[in-house]
Every structure is written in C-alpha cells, then in structure tokens.
Amino acid sequence: MKLIMLGSGTSTGVPRIGGADGRGDWGDCDPAEPRNRRSRVSIVVESKAGARLLVDTSPDLRAQLLANGIDRIDAVFWTHDHADHTHGIDDLRPMRYGRGAPLPGYGHEETVRRLRSRFGYVFAGQHGYHTICTIDTLDRLRLCAGFGVRWCQMDHGPAQSTAYRFDADGRSIGYATDFSAINREMVDLFDGCDLLVVDCLRREPHPTHAHLGMALELAAAARVGRAVLTHMDRSMDYAALGAEVPSHVLVGYDGLVLEA
Question: What is the pTM of this model?
C-alpha cells in the first residue's frame, strides 16, 4: 500500500504571498530547501492492485496531479468543506474522461450538504456537460475500490473535519488533518496504523489545528508504526523540524511517496 503526498502546506501555502521582494514570505523556512515549498494538503492512497483514492481537492490539485504523474483515480473523499480542501474540485473533470460513469465521491453528511450547495454543477452536470462526480455520505460505506474504509469526526475549532483510515493488502494508512483536539474515536480509529498522516500546523498551540505536541501525542496514543507531519506553515523549516522529531516521525513534503 502506498501513500503519495500531493500537498503538505497550510491554507496559504509556503511561501505565503508577499515578502520584501514580492516573491514570497518564507518565514523561518529556508527557500533553498525544495521540501519547504508546500502546496495545499491532499493525498492519494494506492493499493498493490493499482486502485487509487484521492483525499481532498486542494486549489493546487491540477499541478499536484501533473507533478506526480497521476491521471486516474477511483474515488475521492473529502475531510470537510473549507476552501483549501475543496476549491480544486473542477480539476476532477479530466478524471471523468473515458469513464462510463461519474467518479464516486464521499464525505460526512454536513460536508456533502455544503459541497452540493456550492458545487452543484459538479454533481449534476450542466449545459450538456457530464456529471463529473457523485457524492454520498459515509454512513453505509465499508469498502471502496478494494480498500476497507473507516472514519470518525474530529473537532476543527468550531467546525468539524473527518478522519479516515484506509486498509488494503494487510496494511493501513490513516489521515487526520485539520483537528484541534484528540478524542477517543480518533485513537481507536488509528490504533496500530502502519502509517498516520497527521496535522501539525506549528509548534505553538492553535485554536483550530494540531500543533507539534498534539500530533506526537496522537501518534503515541494510537501506537502507529510511523507518522508523517502535514498542513505545516512557514514556521516549520524542514531540516530544523526533522532534527527535533523522533525517528519514527517524518516531516512530510510535496511529492513524498511512502510504502505503508
């Protein structure tokens, strides 16, 4: 089972627009380190048979798919409806080409409701264009494209985000982004995961995201094999952070590929 990290940055990416010369605000991140250049978060999980699930449709999705040579997915899952996780949804259109039916898509009930309201044309077609994607709730979903699928809800400040666990080929990959507290359901969901991709905005606590201490706490509580940090801001220099974390914790970066 394979993880492909399409994007690893926070909602503004790294570098952030601005800077003294207008070419980007890198904060504490070394601009000479390519792994500090972060687009908005999204992942693909791939089974041994080649089935692929996409999690979230970031605003950078087109560039991410091209950079990673991904021209086909079998389904898409959304964690929540915030712009940095959904506004690349139109880039799913080429994934519809050559298919006899729309791409299947899934999310929590509230996420489904909000996405249908905002992107109705994607899920119903318009002006002679095919429906790109269907969208259904997760309530009865247990299997998708050969993957076992489990999920739970997480607090994301005043909102909520969906955590996912995907199992295939005797291995497991968990995904927990955009959470601000650890609950029992999360620990149970990720218990014994081979690989956990986990929210880690910065070192200091934040009202809507996990910080470094919380990310490490979840990985330890769930007894995961390896953890990969994601959704990092411009304070999280790749080399400096890599020197701080335990050996079983990796600093994620755009284009990272790992076997679970």
Answer: 0.97
